[in-house]
Amino acid sequence: MHRRALLAALAAPAFATTTALPARAQGGAWPERTVRIVVPYPPGGSNDILGRILAEALRERLGQAFVIENRAGAGGNVGADVVAKAAPDGHTLLLTAPGPLAINDQVYRNMPYDPAKDLVPVALVATVPIVLMVNPALPVHSVAELVALAKARPGALSFGSSGNSSTNHLAGELLKTLAGINIVHVPYRGAAPAMTDLVAGNIALMFDNMPGSILQIRDNRVRALAVAGAHRAPVLPEVPTVAESGVPGFEAEAWFGLAAPGGTSAELVARINQQVKAALALPQVQARFVEAGAVSSTLDAAGFARFVAAERQKWGEVVRASGARAE
Are 161 and 194 in contact (CB under 8 A)? Predict the structure, then answer.
C-alpha cells in the first residue's frame, strides 16, 4: 500500500456507521460524559495510533466523546500518575504499554504511584510485534552482521527506545545479554522522537513496535533486520525472527492495555471491558489493526490482570539480569 494511503488507514478518524446503541440505552450508566483516555507517550507512536482507533470506535459505538490526551514523561509514569489520582468513575482511563503497569516500579527508584494499588487492569487492547531496525547507512543487513559489528566496535553503537523500562528498551538489554554485545541505550520521551533520530542517523538502531514503524520500513527510511517475537510477523513475512537469526532464546512482544484508577468498582471495570471488546470486534477496527500489525484481544478484566502479573514476572527477570535502573 502506498504510504499516504496506509497513513490514512491507520489514522483516519471516521467510521461509516454507528453499530450499536449508546450504553445508556442498553441499561448501563457508562459513559455519562466525555471520557478522557490518557496516553502516557507523545503523539505518533504505536500507543497513540491504536489509542485513537479505539477512541473513535468507542465514540461511534456509545455516543459519547472519547478524547486522547498525550501526557509523556518518565517512561510513562507522568501520564499513569494522572490516571492513578483521578476519580474512579470510568471517565479517566489509561491506555498504556507494559511499563507503567508491569515494569516501571522495578526500574524507577522513586514512583509517584503504586501500580498494584492505584491502577486497575481493565482490558488488553492489542499485542503487537517488536521489530529490530537500523539506519540504512549502517553496513549491516542481518542480526549476525549487527552482532559482529557491535563486537568489533564495543560501545560505539547506540540504540534508542521510547524510554527507560519500555519493552523496546528491555528488548535491547536482552539482545545485549544474549548476544554478548555492548551497545549504548539512549532513552527518548516516546517512540516517535526516537524514530526521527534513527531516520536521521543520530542513533544506529532501535527496537520499536510494529504500528509505529511499519510506514518507515515500507518507505525504506529504516532497514528491518528481524522481528523480536517467537514467529514472523504477517505484515513483514520476509523478515526473520531474532531467534532464527542466530540469537536463540530471544523473544519479546509488546502490548497495550486499558487501566482505570484504583478503587474503580468491579462492576464498572467489567462494563468497560465489555464495551472495549465489542469495539475491538468491529470489522473496521479489525482491518485497521491488521494493517498496523496489531492483534486485538478478547480477554476479560480478570484475564488481563493475570496477564499483567505474568508480564511483571517476565520483564522483572530481564530488569534484574540487565541491571537496568532509572532515577
Answer: yes
- The string of pLDDT tens digits covering residues 15-47 is 443 334 444 433 457 999 999 999 999 999 899
**Is the whole-model pTM more than 0.90?**
no
The number of helix segments (H) and strand segments (E) in the chain equals 12, 10
Q: Given the C-alpha cell 500518575, which residue does it identify?
A: 81
205 — phi, psi (to 5°)? -155, 165
Residue given cell 487501566 in the structure block: 259
Question: Rounded to 5 degrees, what angle do the CA atoms 74, 75, 81 make?
Answer: 65
Q: How far apart are CA 181 and CA 138, in angstroms?
A: 17
- Pairing mode, strands 35-39 and 66-70: parallel
201: left (phi over 0), alpha (psi -120 to 50) or beta: left
Which residues, at least 6 apart from 274, have a Cβ–Cβ distance to it below 8 Å? none
CA distance 87 to 139: 52
158: phi then psi, degrees, rounded to nearest 5: -115, 145
Radius of gyration in angstroms for the set of CA atoms belonging to the chain, rounded to a whole number: 19
Residue 21: count of CB within 10 angstroms of its CB: 11
Q: Which domains are delineated in the chain?
A: 7-14+33-127+253-322 (3.40.190.150), 129-245 (3.40.190.10)
Count CB neighbours of 146 within 10 A: 26
